[in-house]
């Protein structure tokens, strides 16, 4: 089974896209402490682990460790005079990996580009015969992955076969520590379960060796080394192939399934917590049931009975964590923890099935227990607990580190090198940062102490940063034109320049801090320029009341943005002479709608990450770009998907076209590779309860005529690799208006959201590391000139 263990705060997961880096390698080690049944100690060869590990680490390749039994492994052959040995021997994080190797049952082969069998006498025992490890190696190899071994580690592939029982390396040259170089008179040798070279030859391989040092063999995707002297060469050959390999895209469907399962669980968790019955209907299969036992009686409830207890808009103080997702083909199980109060912890167990292309919850059971009242639990329920951590911190070198928040997760932005990191919580005051925006690695540790941060690397303090107030924050509430209460935060600069802006969200369940704290960072950047900023929670989120965000169209969202403008204008103490809108992502359409409604109220507009086309066209463009990036679809398959999506959007405009949609969908849905890209058939769409983006938002709304008729200052920023190369076309579309009041900016080597990359297909927080240097600066330059 493909098993993934997740322990992630749900409020962060709901906004992230899970994409696994293909530059990852699995080290196979042994749990054997003694030679056979003797009392003669044996171990894994420390040098054959740390020398390749060091090279892989420097090449940016992540390494995981597995052993037949999981847990701690014995190490030996340690040379403390060797700098690399010494470096890792005293590296607590690395040694912890060896003390906690994975069990084969939790390894997901699709995550790895290569598998590496390290040596040492222990490698002769327990590895070769482990069928789970054989299955992992075969799966990696079948995905165009690499199998590599070193010295006695080659014993691990002695019995390696394909699915039909044939040798996986038939006819290939394989090397390892040859039997002829063993001391056959020693007791250790007599415990060996087999002679390595004979076992390889018996399995149709061609075992070769040499009397020279640094002997290694590359035969296709098998890279093997004879002894420790070949450690560097084997590692470098693996790195070379990983950098050049074309990993099979067989994981695309699996990753999509994982994302869909996670989204279904989110619909359940957030739908229950936020009073959103429609999200629960989306999550549950029509025949969903809930089982629980009370007083030795089995109680059953249907999905509708469960939903009947959820009142629209009535929120409860709950926080959910996805603990475990386990997927096998069209079935999945999941475990979720719900903090329902200060002291009550519920554990939900789910069965999900893939039903007509979508993952649905068909069964739930649960248990609960009382836990001691804890400030940490209260902190997770109420993300505002961490508000005091947010703000600007200045190092002795005058570098500014900005701390932001999205729900209970903190983010750190370094203005000098533009690095951006999601911080992982260790405890309330200690957080860690990894190699990328979202990473479980520990590269730095942030310790919050009163009004400062101490930043550590490898337990060594590298800098401190003292909190400095460039503006004051004021939490406010106000109402929109329909009397709905909205909650937000004002950023009031030390020296206001008379300008003010309302920040307008992107899509999704966003509060005043935005997705991955993007609105918080924007507010910070703009307020430090002397501009007053208002950031608010969407309706149904945070402090704001009203409808679920999923049911809000562009006019509704625009009314809320205009309510912010009205509020700023009503605050005479702020002396706002010019008030504008700053929108991110979906905010570009919302800003245009606000102008359509009350353009006279708006003095200027900033659109970050602009599209400036219809939502319909954006969907078609984005789908095409994403499928091309997968690299596994033919032009015909892509064309079929785009046609089906186009027919679906036609149907949403005109339900009489249902037959056209359904007939075409049936004609191509047998191609299982396309299922994740297809829209539902007409009978799967609820046209009465419009709570999906394609049923709520105006698919054919084109903002270009609005910009043509708007004569006040406008700044539009485009990112080069957003649906590349269409960003150029979208910018040119606006430029064709030849409006002197509109300034367009194309940020090269930037992805969606302004993150730097040189790869048009890289838009994953698991790979990206920093904002583009021009993302904030170009906008601030323009804003200063107005």
UniProtKB/TrEMBL annotation:
Species of provenance: Flavobacterium laiguense
CDD domains per record: GATase1_Hsp31_like (cd03141)
InterPro entries the UniProt entry points to: AB_hydrolase_Est10, AB_hydrolase_fold, Class_I_gatase-like, DJ-1/PfpI, FrzH/put_lumazine-bd, Hydrolase_4, NTF2-like_dom_sf
Annotated Serine aminopeptidase S33 domain residues: 499-606
Domain DJ-1/PfpI: 48-241
Name this polypeptide is given: Alpha/beta hydrolase
GO molecular function: carboxylic ester hydrolase activity
